[in-house]
Design a protein that fits this description.
The chain has about 625 residues and is of the alpha+beta class. Among the domains are: about 210 residues, no CATH class; about 200 residues, no CATH class. Helix content is about 25%, strand content about 25%. The strands form seven sheets. Strands 21, 24, 25, 26, 27, 28, 29, 30 and 31 form a nine-stranded antiparallel β-sheet that branches. A hairpin with a 6-residue loop joins β11 and β12. α6 packs parallel to α9 and α9 packs parallel to α10. The longest helix is centred in the C-terminal third of the chain and has 18 residues. The two termini are about 45 Å apart.
Length: about 625
């Protein structure tokens, strides 16, 4: 028997609004680009035929289908069954706005008229006292979807609530395993983000240096702060999709993947290269450049109604690489461990992470995976970098993760002594990126304010204090150089990694200061390991003709940054903790990067330290 959720255990109860009459495309220059794209050969078991809203076999859609990505909590009132299952009451509470002329001509002279019948309520609204009258229908969630399919000429739609038998656990498990196929073979994915609401029409005309128009930039920013951007399953749906049509209350946007190399062009995405992470993560499984850090950067901060879904959504993203059973009866702790163990043994970019703190030193947000007592090498205490990472290493023997989730690596190392930025007005002291700007409870905000006061006091520490604390290992020449490092602008880390520089270090008296992004302070010796993360950050250059210099679209290129992982010894233990990364080499967009293996051999080949086995907890 279904029962309403009590205030103590309710999720978000939301009804959304969709304005069919006011929809505007934030990229009008692209036209109706979604009409001409094709999908893959795979067909889901069932689809909705939108002309009559009937469930039909998937092979009926000979010309392809679209897949829906939405936040379940926004589809109606969430109710809980007697067990641990949830359901949604699809009541007629969603607001569908239509132009009055499309529905009825008998409006009369009244500004607002309310009609009621057994299925819905209609409000006729004259907001401007002219002929721009609107009709607001209170409809079910399906009613919103029907109108969207009509507006965007979608003939067949995959919608989990109808296309999966919600009463069959066997069918649910079978279809969950096929999610990566459903979204990767769709013509495009429709992402329903009702928070997108652009009230000022002038924003569609105002230029923006990163996103062409202010409307496009605002649409992008709202999307990354929406409920849709907080859920685990929507993230998997995003990463599996080749193209995505983001539909808001009154505006929509188009994004498509660029999965090629530096010679490929992408005229549609170029203008949003720096402002739009979607360009870098769409169609993840078919990308030539991809790595685990790109997924974990976002996935570890997502939520789900069921704990297991955090892992199962990740497993679908890594389909073919990580194989785990979709079984909700297993213990969540072991399911989480099983996934990260397989990722750690497959892809060392899991260790390519830095600080997840604000500029003032306070925690901005915390990983949703921190509940599961994960080891430090998973990056659960930090923020993974955003560029695709290629890995070159000088390891003696194979690495492995034991039954206690400790990673074993045998290699040489370089000792360093990190110094925290303490006396710099813009010293990226634990800076984070805005994409995860989530709402927090008031008590967390109060705690952050207290931490800000402490950090303000700490920031007033003078360079003399730094000298006093570290004079036992810094020469006079190094101390002079370190003063310059403290005064230098540590901004490059944020630009190339997405996490802020928190410390700096010197390898010797003559080398320039290196920037580090660490998840915690290190009062003594730390270790750099010979695992080189070649982070390729895409950017788009406007192409010009040889003759007139006029624009001819966009060309994607890459900026390379070389990072190395940083460890510190655990107090009172023989084991180590992974605490972040050091920016070892930074190349300008016009520079050709050095051979990674040569860089490693030069740095570690003749170093005085012998090989050692590092056990990382």
């Amino acid at each position: 028997m279904l029962q309403s959720i009590t205030p103590e255990n309710r999720n978000n109860i939301m009804h959304i609004e969709y304005s069919s009459s006011d929809q505007r495309f934030v990229e009008p220059e692209l036209g109706e680009c979604w009409l001409n794209v094709t999908g893959g050969p795979y067909r889901p078991t069932w689809l909705i035929r939108t002309s009559d809203w009937k469930k039909v076999p998937g092979n009926e859609a000979t010309d392809g289908y679209c897949a829906l990505s939405y936040c379940w909590e926004q589809s109606g009132e969430i109710i809980k069954t007697d067990g641990s299952e949830y359901d949604c009451n699809n009541s007629a509470g969603h607001r569908l706005i239509l132009a009055a002329a499309t529905t009825t001509t008998d409006l009369g002279d009244s500004a607002i008229r309310i009609q009621q019948d057994p299925t819905h309520i209609v409000e006729v609204i004259d907001r401007n006292s002219d002929d721009k009258k609107k009709i607001i229908n209170l409809v079910t969630y399906d009613g919103i979807l029907k109108q969207i399919c009509q507006d965007f000429q979608i003939a067949y739609l995959w919608y989990d609530k109808i296309c999966i038998n919600q009463g069959s656990k066997e069918e649910k498990l079978r279809e969950i395993k096929q999610m990566h196929l459903i979204y990767s073979n769709a013509r495009y994915t429709v992402a329903l983000v009702p928070e997108i609401n652009i009230l000022n029409p002038a924003l569609f005309e105002r230029p923006d240096m990163y996103a062409k128009t202010k409307a496009r930039k605002k649409t992008h920013d709202i999307m990354w702060r929406s409920e849709w951007s907080k859920r685990s399953w929507t993230f998997e749906e995003l990463m599996m999709s080749k193209r995505i049509l983001v539909v808001g209350r009154n505006a929509h946007a188009w994004h498509q993947a660029n999965t090629g190399d530096e010679d490929d062009d992408d005229d549609n995405n170029g203008s949003l290269a720096y402002a739009d992470p979607l360009v870098q993560i769409l169609d993840f499984k078919n990308r030539k450049l991809k790595s685990a850090n790109q997924v974990l950067k976002y996935a570890q901060f997502r939520t789900s109604a069921k704990e297991h879904d955090k892992v199962f959504a990740l497993a679908n993203i890594f389909h073919g690489v990580v194989s785990i059973d979709i079984d909700y009866s297993g213990g969540i702790q072991e399911v989480v461990y099983d996934f990260y163990r397989r990722i750690g043994e497959h892809d060392l970019s899991v260790m390519c992470f830095g600080s997840v703190r604000n500029k003032n030193g306070s925690m901005r947000f915390k990983s949703k995976m921190a509940l599961y007592d994960l080891p430090s090498w998973t990056g659960v205490n930090g923020l993974h970098t955003h560029g695709a990472v290629s890995i070159t290493h000088l390891l003696a023997g194979n690495r492995f993760v034991d039954d206690s989730m400790r990673m074993h690596i045998k290699c040489k190392h370089i000792p360093i002594y990190p110094i925290q930025y303490v006396d710099h007005r813009d010293a990226c002291i634990f800076r984070s990126i805005p994409v995860f700007d989530m709402e927090r409870p008031e008590e967390e905000e109060e705690e952050e304010e207290e931490e800000e006061e402490e950090d303000t006091a700490r920031a007033s520490t003078s360079i003399e204090t730094v000298e006093e604390n570290y004079s036992h290992f810094l020469s006079a020449e190094m101390m002079t150089t370190n003063k310059k490092a403290v005064d230098a602008e540590p901004i490059s880390f944020m630009a190339v990694a997405g996490c802020g520089a928190t410390h700096f270090c010197m390898l010797d008296d003559t080398s320039p200061a290196l920037q580090l992004s660490l998840t915690e302070h290190c009062n003594g010796e730390a270790m750099i390991l010979p695992i080189l993360f070649d982070s390729k950050r895409p950017f788009f250059k406007e192409k010009t003709s040889d003759a007139g210099g006029s624009s001819h679209g966009w060309k994607m290129e890459y900026r390379h940054s070389y990072f190395l992982p940083v460890l510190k010894k655990r107090a009172g233990h023989a084991a180590y903790k992974a605490i972040g990364i050091v920016l070892f080499k930074l190349y300008m967009p016009t520079e050709a990067p050095e051979d990674p293996l040569k860089v490693l051999k030069q740095a570690f080949g003749d170093h005085r330290c012998e090989e050692r086995e590092f056990v990382i907890e």
